[in-house]
Structures are given as C-alpha cells and as structure tokens.
Amino acid sequence: MEAVQARQFAAYLTDEAMLIEAEKVVRITRAAWNRAVETVPGWPQQRLAPVPPKRTPYWLRDDQLPASLREQITGYLTSLGQPDPFLGPSRRALAPGTVDQHRIVCITLASALVGSGIPVDQLTSLAVLVQPDNLERGLRFLYGRAGDPRRSRCCPTAPGGLRPMPACPPGTSPSSTRCWSAFGR
After folding, report:
1. For labelling alongside 125, which of 4, 73, 159, 167 has CA 20 to 30 A away?
2. SS3 content of the chain, % helix, strand, coil (to 5)
3. How many Å apart are CA 21 and CA 70, to the nearest integer?
4. Which residues are CB-neighbours of 37 under 8 A, at least 6 positions away?
5. Angle 96-115/132-146 helices, nearest 10 degrees?
6. First-to-last C-alpha distance (Å) of the chain
7. CA dihedral 156, 161, 167, 172 (to 10 degrees)
8. Around 26, how many Cα atoms within 13 Å sit in the side-chain half-sphere?
9. Which are the contacts of 96, defined by CB distance < 8 A and separation ≥ 6?
10. Which among 32, 170, 165 is positioned nearest to 99, based on CA atoms?
C-alpha cells in the first residue's frame, strides 16, 4: 500500500462510508499494516506514516516535576493514607485507590498549568498549584481540552468530571477549595 492509497482509504471512510470514528479506523489500520510489515513474511515492506495526533499531549511524568513539588505531593499523599492521630477522629485513612486519585489530581493540575504556559520550574509546591489564579488557569486549560462541557471529564478522579477534594493540602486557602468544588457541580 502506498501513501496515496492510504489517503484514498481514509477519504473513502470519511466521505463515502461515513463512519463516525473514521479516524480511529484509519489509525488502527495503519498501525496494523506497519505491524504486518514487521511480522508477516512476504508482506510489502512499505511502511505507512502514523496518523498525527489530534491534540498535543500535556501530561507530565512524576520525574518531570520539581523535586520540591514531588516531595510535597508525597507528604500530602502519606498524610491521606496515614493521617496524624492527634489531628482528631475526623481524619480517617483513605483507601489506597483514593490516595492514588489524589496523586493523579496533583499531577493533572501541574501538567495543565505547564500546558497553559507556566514553566514547570515555577511549580515548586502544592501551595503554588492551588493558588486561586493557578487553580482557575489549570481548570480552564482542562475544560478547554475537554470540548463539549456536558461530556467533560477534565479530571480522571470520577465520572462526570472534577470532584471536590475531601481534604485540602496543607497551606491551601479555602477559596481554592471553593473554586475546586464549584467545578464538581
């Protein structure tokens, strides 16, 4: 299959077959063709260029965050999973899966802030992440990427989008919690 034929196939799926997910079919077909080049004896050795992604990725790995922020996230997560017994009976340990959701929320927010143009080296603490202006900026970035706001899944914490954090990280302001909670409605 030549590049011209691959383009014709994509146009056929989009224009004539009118598949809802034509791009997905094209992406899968191209990937399967390229796997066959490597694995099927006698298969034509013409590789097809992968379909460019619709969006640029924004997700940061843990090791891409500043060390000070990683340390604070680790401390915050530890406090959720093993709360200080002297803070009172209202602080129960969260389940490991819930603690991991909080980790994902922290990394999602940091990633969104970097995606919105804030240099990663400025994200030095949890307090910086949840400053009201930064929190709003990150949430607006995620909201903008989500497309249709009725189907928004800005944050992978729960179906339906953002949910309020049960406990604020140390050093955060109540306005941050209110801002966070407002997006969960």
Report:
1. 159
2. 60, 0, 40
3. 39
4. 43, 44, 45, 46, 47
5. 90
6. 50
7. 100
8. 25
9. 81
10. 165
Contact 109, 115 (CB under 8 A): no
**Residue 64 near residue 49 (C-beta atoms within 8 A):** no
Q: Which of 134, 102, 120 is nearest to 66 (CA)?
A: 120
pLDDT digits (tens, 9 = 90+) for 49-60: 877 777 678 889
Can you tell me the distance from the alpha carbon of 86 to that of 10, in angstroms, rounded to the nearest whole number?
Answer: 63
Contacts of 127 (CB under 8 A, 6+ apart): 169, 171, 172
Q: Are 102 and 76 in contact (CB under 8 A)?
A: yes
Token digits for 126?
A: 């949890």
What are the average pLDDT values for consecutive 10-residue runs of the chain, which has 185 residues? 74 73 82 89 86 78 94 93 80 88 94 94 94 92 73 42 46 50 44
Extract the tokens encoding 100: 């991991």
Could you give the CA distance from residue 26 to residue 24 in angstroms, rounded to a whole number? 5
Retrieve residue 61's tokens: 């790995």
DSSP 163: -
Helices 22-39, 3-11: crossing angle, 10 deg rounding: 150
What pLDDT score was predicted for residue 44? 87
Residue-wise pLDDT tens digits, 101-114? 999 999 999 999 99
CB contact at 8 A, 173 and 179: no
